[in-house]
Amino acid sequence: MAHSWVFFLGALLCLGCSQVTLAEVGKLVCYYDAASFVREGPAQLSLPELEPALSFCNYLIYGYAGIDASNYKLKSLHPELTYNRQHYNQITALRKKYAHLRILLSVGGDRDINEFGEPDNGKYLSLLEQPEHRNNFKASVSAELSQYGFDGIDLAWQFPKLRPKKQQGAFRRAWSSFKGLFSSDTIDAKAEEHKTQFAALVRELRVELQRNGKQLSLSMLPHVDPQLFIDIPSVMPYVDFVNLGTYDFHTPQRDPKQADVVAPLHEMPERDLTHNVAHQVEYWLNSTANAQQLNIGIASYGRAWRMSRDSGLTGYPPVPDTEGAADGGKHTLIPGLLSWPEICEQLQLHLGQGKDKNNEHLRKVGDPTKRFGIYAYRSAGDNGEPGLWVGYEDPTSAAIKASYSQARRLGGVAFHDLSLDDFRGQCAGEKYPILRSIKFKL
Ligand SMILES: *[C@@H]1O[C@H](CO)[C@@H](O)[C@H](O)[C@H]1NC(C)=O
């Protein structure tokens, strides 16, 4: 009974589609950052090292392609790798061995940057504005997917992000939410039009892709406000699923002077009420009946701040007077980010070797409430050595989020990303421990 109603409603909503797909639950969507293939040294993830992950994933999302600003066609961000060295073909060929796997090409993801190294939002907005630009994009997506054998496209659209709010205390919070009433037009004065146009793009793409049996998904980037840019009821009937941007709520890039739990599951006292997984899920559920199309994002990496002497000794978040992004990990080399094996190694130093002379040990602080998340830190030294504060996920905390997705009967989990999990099994012997732990709960 209930099911036939769902089909009936789905068919009504989906007049433009020829086929209604009911999303399955327990999905595991795995992001694969192609840049990890060209990293130098031990952080490089080779194809044979990628393979053990694939039996756990329902979808592999290849990140990332970009948009050519001169003609609004899809373009490769690493043409040498993807075309000449045939990386696209090598990835899609994996489906021969892992027949259950669907492989989507993702466009955007904050990787499509301008000459200043900033995500290039402008072309993502101007593409939306003209039907002929949308047509160029659509045609190039179709061509690229067919030529390289992808199963679909994922839109990790580079909408402008909400600006970080700098406030502490109730008065300043109230003041900034008052200002917030007027601030949206400063992010994008034409947000309302772009919202309508993006819904049109999704609908048009769906019609085109469906002819070739290709899929379409949406990946929300953290701090892109769906209220500004996504007409949820119009978009949902045309996408296979949506990956919510429920990670990176707090990062050293956005909040250099204050370290905090990166992606709390539930609202934390005295924090922005939107900066947690549950709020984002609730927002989307308020606008769509189909929970099974929603996947929550879970990170495999930590965000790392440099602690100063003034940050105190307790590590208790929010940690004041931090000095921005900590140095990159010794393998991944990305400022303010540590992969799970890089974090795990420093935690084990603490356990195994006590007070290490190089200050490399990290003290873990767990979360018995299972509501917020975990962190690890070492405070700054007496001789001016900086401290380190890292908010992260481990197999246990990721499993708590996966269980939440199950309990709310959502579609599943979107995992960011395979290349920052422990793909060699250096930490505890098992390869991809966070991925496995999520899969176990779904
Ligand atoms: C969802 O809807 C309820 C009821 O209208 C409302 O109270 C709540 O604030 C909404 N939540 C979000 C996150 O928008």
TrEMBL record:
GO annotations of cellular component type: extracellular region
Protein name: Chitinase-like protein Idgf5
Origin: domain of life: Eukaryota
GO biological process: carbohydrate metabolic process; chitin catabolic process
PROSITE patterns listed in its UniProt record: GH18_2
Location of this chain's protein in the cell: Secreted
Keywords: Developmental protein, Disulfide bond, Glycoprotein, Secreted, Signal
Family annotation (InterPro entries): Chitinase_II/V-like_cat, Chitinase_insertion_sf, GH, Glyco_hydro18_cat, Glycosyl_Hydrlase_18, IDGF
One matching Pfam family: Glyco_hydro_18
Entry keyword annotation includes Cell division: no
Domain GH18: 26-442
Gene (UniProt): LOC117570492
Family: Belongs to the glycosyl hydrolase 18 family. IDGF subfamily.
Record organism: Drosophila albomicans (Fruit fly)
